[in-house]
Write a structure and sequence with these properties.
Number of helices: 8
CATH architecture of the largest domain: 2-Layer Sandwich
Number of strands: 11
Mean pLDDT: 82
Distance between the termini: 60 Å
CATH topology of the largest domain: Alpha-Beta Plaits
Order of helices and strands: HEEHEHEEHEEHEEHHEHE
Oligomer: single chain
Strand content: 15-25%
Length: 255
């Protein structure tokens, strides 16, 4: 008796097919959204794939040395804003993918300055709560948002313990070709995936190094021969909110 409400399986199949058809049309419409003159989401999605493909053998990550991160220094923040076409917080509703925070040890009173961004968790809460699959993790550990299917519900914003997700409230202009964005969608640090896929370093890492700070190290956490793996193995490092067991791709030393 408890299954009587499913007595019309053919009707259920028809309803499911109709829903899939609607979602397909909706997705096709979203794919054609004009982001900026000459830049469409569908064209970005059809860009040339990564040479050799994305592999789970690699896990991209960052190690941030807090002893080299000076209070008041915003070189990494400026580089991120420039690279991704962000206003840098000059507009109250605009995104900021990386921000500097100050932490204080209660017992000693010691303060430290740290850059905070998406931590690219191995077990990302943003992915768990996303109803459409727009929030996803690549095989190489980079956590991203698929603008085609993001409905702007902002569940991921609430789920992120690092406050690393932002909602785009206003129409956008003067966007970067490699960084598709769109009003009504959620976004956050992509670890400069468009640069990483070309064998380059994220903009924040390059800026920190060029300024002589050397506070951010980027590399493959899965490769025991990489500099970042050797550093993590040799010196103590921590994850922010280790108690959550998210296995973050961003680690911090000196805290």
């Amino acid at each position: 008796m408890k299954h009587e409400h499913n007595s019309s399986p053919s009707g259920a199949v028809a309803k499911s097919s109709s829903r899939r058809g609607f979602l397909g049309v909706a997705a096709a419409g979203m794919a054609g959204i004009l982001l900026a003159p000459g830049v469409r989401l569908i064209e970005i999605a059809q860009a040339a794939p990564v040479a050799g493909g994305v592999s789970s053998k690699v896990r991209w990550g960052m190690l941030i040395d807090s002893s080299k991160c000076a209070s008041g220094c915003t070189d990494c923040v400026t580089a991120c804003n420039t690279e991704n076409g962000l206003s840098g917080g000059t507009l109250p509703t605009d995104s900021q993918w990386i921000r500097k925070i100050e932490i204080k040890e209660i017992r000693s009173g010691k303060t430290q300055s740290l850059p905070m961004m998406c931590q690219h968790c191995a077990e990302p809460p943003c992915v768990d709560v996303c109803p459409t699959g727009a929030s996803f993790k690549r095989a190489d550990g980079i956590v991203l948002v698929d603008k085609h299917i993001c409905i702007g519900c902002r569940y991921c914003v609430m789920a992120c313990p690092y406050k690393a997700r932002s909602f785009v409230h206003e129409p956008l202009s003067n966007q970067k070709t490699d960084v598709p964005r769109g009003m009504g969608t959620v976004e956050g640090c992509t670890m400069c995936v468009h640069k990483v896929d070309k064998g380059e370093q994220p903009a924040c890492v390059t800026a920190c190094s060029s300024a002589g700070h050397g506070a951010i190290l980027f590399g493959d956490l899965n490769n025991p021969e990489s500099e970042i793996s050797k550093r993590v193995a040799s010196y103590p490092s921590r994850q922010i909110r280790e108690d959550l067991n998210l296995n973050t791709g961003v680690r911090y030393s000196g805290i």
